[in-house]
Amino acid sequence: MLAQSVVAGFNGEARFVSENYGDSKLAKRFGVTRYPAIFVDDVLVATPKDFGFYGKGEGKDEGRYAPLKSPASHERLRADLSRMVAAILAGRKDDARAAASPSRAAEIAALPAIDLTDIDGGKLTRDDLAGKVVLVEFWATWCPPCRGTLGWLGELKKRYGDRLVVVALALESEEVNVRRVASEMRLSLRWAMGSPEVARAFGDVSAVPTLFVFDREGHTASVLYGAPPTLHGEAEARLASLLP
Questions:
Q1: Alpha-carbon distances of 119 from 84, 90, 122, rounded to whole Å
Q2: For the chain, what is the domain count?
Q3: In terms of residue numbers, what domain contains 172?
Q4: pTM attached to this predicted model
């Protein structure tokens, strides 16, 4: 396996671990529900979408390392893995995490046109959000880290009040469970049901939680993937610049 050969090149300084589907604590932490997925330490390097494997209804076949059988894809993955392992061994985990993030070229430039109804029956469109700084959080009821990020987003909403809108879009979740979470957490968020089509409108939503930050003009200010230790600091620093 290619990943094993990369690890072998570090002469015992790194080791390869294979985890079964459903048994990976790291996969659960990052909300990855399909395989293959690759981590270097606790940095999510590649998801199924990176290899061109998309879920039912997602309708795409491209990815950073697709087609998987291509020699060029192998070399690209080998180089990326080697660079990230080397960075982590050198104590530069932030560099590895930055390198692992999808390229900004693949991210959406602005808040897409949406036409949703939240679980309270309110309309939720791009026009409704105009002139506000908007956070859009993709989450799922089965994702343990999502509860923590939702609670933190509720605190941000309290801090910034009407200047900030937080939209919580649930993916791969039953509405009855979403309503239960919303009722239990009692947060001032706009709770709504997501779908593969909505996720595609926001670009490459490969895992949950995924957080999008949009400025008052609707431009994309940041996209933050998963729940790494740096999540709160990065998002709050970005918000501070948008909402001084």
A1: 41, 47, 7
A2: 2
A3: 106-242
A4: 0.64
